[in-house]
Task: structure prediction
Amino acid sequence: MRPKRSRKISAPPSIQGFAPIEQRAIEEPCIWLNWDEFEALRLADYLDLAQEEAAGRMEVSRPTFGRILKSARNKVARALVESRCMGVAGGVVSLDMAWLRCFSCGHLEKHDESMVEGNECPSCGEPKLRLLAGDLTSEEVL
Ligand SMILES: [Zn+2]
Result:
């Protein structure tokens, strides 16, 4: 199988997933949304960009963007309708700038000289900041 080309991501998700309020639903396996699918939803449905522009930002063709978006919308709809938890992780993506994400509270911070991996999180104080930069594989974004 041909390796998937990485999709450009401007803003990594600050969360690792959602769960329904009802505890019973936690028993069901989660539906996993890839980072590129999260980005497609952010661009097309949150920022309301035209698909042509959104595809350009992710550096994929318009039809490829359409497929990513359709898959993302389908997963979100399934999670809502089937009362499933939804994880946000995985996918072959490329970040256009470096970020630090706190793996304790989900806080996102742009990476610079004053803020590096291992620093205390400015939001929760835990030393759980992890660098997210460049090309990431599915394992790295989990
Ligand atoms: Zn934190």
Notes: The mean pLDDT is 85. The chain has one domain: 7-136. The chain is about 30% helix and 20% strand. The longest helix spans residues 62-81.
